[in-house]
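FW: tagging you since you asked about this chain on Friday. Here's the raw sequence from the shared folder, copied in full. Didn't touch anything.
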Amino acid sequence: MPAVDGRHSALVPVAEARPALDAPPPRVQTAGLAPRPHDTAGRRPAGEMTNPQDFEIFLAAAPGLEALLAEEVRGKGFRQPKAVPGGVVLKGGWPEVWRANLWLRGAGRVLARLDAFHVTHLAQLDGRARRVPWASVLRPDVPFRVEVACHKSRIYHSDAAAQRIETAIRETLHAPQSETADVLVRARIDHDLCTISIDTSGEALHKRGYKQAVNAAPLRETMASLFLQACGYTGQETLLDPMCGSGTFVIEAAEIAARLNPGRNRPFAFEQLASFDAEAWQRMRQVQSSRPPAARCHGYDRDAGAVEMSRANAARAGVSDSTEFHQAPISALAPPAGPPGLVMVNPPYGTRLGERDKLVPLYQALGQVLASRFAGWRVGLVAAEPALARATRLPFLPPGAPVPHGGLRVTLYRTGVLA
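HL: got it, structure written out here
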């Protein structure tokens, strides 16, 4: 069994990934496997392995972060990932689905493609949905729900389309439908191409399972991890966040340094599917590849409540031994002992009318402290207003495209090594 963090994975050979399903392909390789026998509870018999046939897997990412996610996926041993609008596609089987949920830090969700077909009216959708091999993936004893998105298609009423798919599943599989079900069937009808997928993650993957408390407008862990990656962070250097909030950057960095799997503390929707093999999953989760961190991760915040929140989150994540949190203003900031590393900071955005001007002194002070005291360090700064990033007067490299975040668009600004 490969290392659980994916650095030495031995995956089933996969075919070249197809283009994104936003453009109608002639045929999509899907997870429609032949029905297999189940016990009376709808589960596979103990020790029975799933069909190794490969299908398309879609890893969701915020627009603008697809290339970074593809880089992470490739680095963790998944073969032939391809960045497409909104995420990454690759080929694999159910073990790859499990590993993606367990290992990947930057993916927001993992979808298994079940089927894809052209439809132009609801009656056609009804008939075609009844031919999807639901029994190979869904269990008749587990509730399900359906969500549909329609885009530039002759079928434009998403609720009506969802109702047809729900009826097809109920009448062919006899599974119960519930608006609160963990098992979610997703359908996207784009230019008359209907792509049906199973959301194998359940709750979004940025919910690592340790945060009971967050500050206002927190940065999602998935985005934070990809921003760390974009700044060249690999867990081998000191990290410092001078405005740590609930500790997202610090905790993500500490987990990377310790080689901890981001999905180790949470359940997944795929555990309720007919394709699930509990024994194989348990073996996969039990493989340990953690290591002593090479450096410490430091968080500072002027707010005492934020510091306590970060410490509690770090304790639940199991990284208290490699993290430190202190209450301090920007003016008191100083580099910790040891070699230089990376400063990652997500300051207030100042998007409301009049807020930007009030935040200029804060950004100026941050830039002055970093430029004068952190020679040899690199800086990554997340900002929604280019003018505020410029107020730091730090020597930023050309920024990438803005990324959607909480109704805003934020940009990662990076420096090289500060002189």
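FW: The longest helix spans residues 355-373.
HL: agreed, and Residues 298 and 324 are 5 Å apart (CA to CA).
FW: great, closing this out.
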